[in-house]
Structure formats: structure tokens, C-alpha cells
Design brief:
156 residues, alpha+beta
């Protein structure tokens, strides 16, 4: 019985030592909900190298990799477009996950220098949810009409 418990403990210790803490908690692409007010905006997502990743219509959930390579954080630019509204942009940036530092206690150097950086799990994308309010555009450059049909300016 003692040998069996010792074997289980050793196997568990070995498993923890060859994985990274951040990889255990959140590996793979991050699911980022994207919405607009009003809904129905076309959103084009570009990565840090300005490559188009995908184009979808709000609301949707984007599945985005937080890493651009070994020890290389990814970032994204979301461009919202909708007829009758001004285009707007939202930036997503990668920050180091707090779980990455759990390697100091549990994952060791293998988790800190190999597993989490290689899998991209050492990064989280911020913000975790995008809810963009679109601004009505006006063709003449004057303020957009109010719901009653009259133009409003900052002085009214």
C-alpha cells in the first residue's frame, strides 16, 4: 500500500514537473466575445503583423492565439464598420498571465522556460470581452441628427 501511494505521488509529481502552470489553467486560443451597439457591424481582425485573421459580423466569439511564437506576445486590432456609423478600432494586447509565475512553485524551469512559452499559455489577451458602441456618422460633417430629426451640436 505504501509503495502504491508512493508511486502515485511520484507520477503526479512527474506530471506537474513537465507541464507549465499556465498551460494547465488555460492553454490554446482565447475565446473573446465581440459585440457592437448596434449589432450587425462588420469586424475585421488583424494581428501584430497586420495580417487579416478573420472578418465576422457582431455578435460573435473570436478564437485568438495569445502568442506569436516562443516568448513572443500577440496583439490584435479590431476594426468595426457599419453603414451610417463611423469606423472604430479596439486593440487587444497580450499580458503575462499570473499563472505563469506559478511555475516558481509547481512547474519549475521546464514550465517557465519551455512549456508555457511554447504553448502561448503564458499570455492572456486583454480586454477579455469587447463591447464597442458605434457613433453615428454624418455625411456633411455636421452633427448627426438626433432621434427627433433635428441636428444637435455641443452648444445646444
Amino acid at each position: 500500500m505504501v509503495l502504491k501511494n508512493l508511486a502515485v505521488a511520484a507520477a503526479l509529481g512527474a506530471a506537474v514537473s513537465v507541464t507549465g502552470c499556465a498551460t494547465i489553467v488555460h492553454s490554446g486560443p482565447r475565446e473573446i466575445p465581440v459585440e457592437s451597439v448596434p449589432p450587425g457591424a462588420k469586424v475585421s481582425i488583424y494581428d501584430r503583423d497586420n495580417h487579416l485573421v478573420e472578418t465576422k459580423t457582431t455578435p460573435f466569439t473570436a478564437s485568438l492565439k495569445p502568442s506569436a511564437g516562443y516568448f513572443k506576445a500577440q496583439s490584435y486590432r479590431l476594426i468595426f464598420e457599419m453603414p451610417g456609423y463611423s469606423n472604430s478600432e479596439v486593440d487587444l494586447s497580450a499580458d503575462v498571465s499570473g499563472w505563469y509565475f506559478g511555475n516558481l512553485l509547481f512547474g519549475g524551469l521546464i514550465g517557465m522556460l519551455a512549456v508555457d512559452p511554447a504553448t502561448g499559455a503564458m499570455y492572456n489577451l486583454e480586454p477579455e470581452k469587447v463591447a464597442q458602441h458605434l457613433t453615428p456618422a454624418s455625411a456633411s460633417g455636421s452633427p448627426a441628427p438626433s432621434p427627433s430629426g433635428t441636428a444637435r451640436s455641443a452648444n445646444n
